[in-house]
Design brief:
globular, binds magnesium ion, 49% helix, 14 helices, binds adenosine-5'-diphosphate, Rossmann fold, alpha/beta, 16% strand
Length: 307
């Protein structure tokens, strides 16, 4: 009898040990990769990417924000930071990823992109696997990776969108911006994007304008592209936003009571709970390593994008 009890005790302790080892080795988080883009430039992608990241940070989410606009990298400028190194140094093997990451407000970490992003499409196998390995290290550390891209349907931008878990398309209410946003959605749908597509209407006069524009856009995507796009909110055109840019400080921090800040907070509430009419669950995050693996195979596929 006591022999039996001893056996059980040993078994229980070995199981406990096994669980402990697994808990140590398992990444505590799987990072949700969200790519922000638009058809037309100047619609507010970088402004929203930064401020959304900061609100997520204020909600105690661990966030890494990557500046992947190879033309106009400007997240750093928006915060008045001069980065010493960019992703370019990592690609060239001169720095580790952890050496180039900048500390932003609210605990948000920033990966300065610069012109290095342009080189992503032209990496050889060794460089790519080094990058994927480096980026894979951040997988267990962050809840969200927010990637700010350039505008349009260039191969680079489209590749980033196709590799993402979630895509956020930013537009204004202007017909030109809406037409270009529609073109971008069409491009990624044609290339079998299988994640969620969210829509933010920025610089609206009031929220009813935003809701109306988003609904029209949603219906057009549903009818002609057979896609269920998810309107996730709108942001008013407000002097506070421009003032933040001028003073190189995020408006959500400078003006926490502003309508634009409240708009961002409700967008983040919806994003975190996976708000959407068809499905109340957030999508399954694929992780950073998986994102860059997908990205590199997309880069090799010559048919991506039109540019
Ligand atoms: N909601 C807003 N209200 C007022 N100005 C805005 C708003 N969103 C963006 N802007 C302004 O629009 C300009 C372009 O924004 P930016 O984020 O750089 O666009 P993008 O990254 O899409 O090119 C900036 O000067 C910014 O201050
Ligand atoms: Mg930008």
């Amino acid at each position: 009898m006591s022999d039996q009890a001893e056996k059980l005790r040993k078994m229980a302790s070995s199981i406990r040990q096994q669980i402990e080892v697994e808990m140590i080795n398992k990444p505590s988080r799987q990072t949700r990769v969200i790519v922000i883009s638009s058809g037309k430039g100047g619609v507010g992608k970088s402004t929203l990417a930064l401020n959304m990241s900061l609100v997520l940070g204020a909600y105690k989410q661990k966030v890494i924000l990557m500046d992947a606009d190879m033309g106009l990298a400007n997240i750093d400028i928006m915060l008045g930071i001069v980065p010493e190194y960019t992703i370019q140094h990592v690609l060239q093997g001169r720095k580790r990823l952890k050496d180039i990451i900048i500390d932003g407000p609210s605990g948000v970490k920033i990966i300065p992109g610069g012109s290095g992003i342009n080189e992503l499409a032209n990496l050889n196998d060794n460089e790519l696997s080094r990058l994927i390995q480096e980026l894979g290290k951040v997988d267990g550390e962050y809840d969200y990776m927010i990637i700010d891209t350039g505008a349009g349907i260039s191969r680079n931008v489209v590749s980033f969108l196709l590799a993402a878990d979630d895509v956020i398309i930013v537009t204004t209410a202007e017909p030109t911006s809406l037409t270009d946003a529609y073109g971008l959605v069409k491009t990624i749908i044609r290339q079998s994007f299988d994640g969620k597509i969210y829509l933010i209407v920025n610089k609206v006069t009031n929220s009813s304008e935003g809701i109306m524009v988003a609904e029209k856009f949603r219906i057009a995507c549903n009818r002609f592209l057979e896609t269920d796009l998810i309107p996730i909110g709108n942001v008013v055109d407000e002097p506070a936003v421009r003032e933040g840019i001028m003073r190189q400080e995020a408006f959500t921090q400078m003006f926490p009571q502003s309508t634009a800040t409240k708009n961002i907070v409700s967008i983040i509430d919806r994003l975190m709970t996976g708000y959407d009419q068809q499905n109340s669950n957030p999508g399954r995050p694929g992780g950073v390593k998986n994102f860059f693996r997908k990205l590199s195979s997309i880069f090799r596929d010559k048919d991506v994008g039109v540019g």
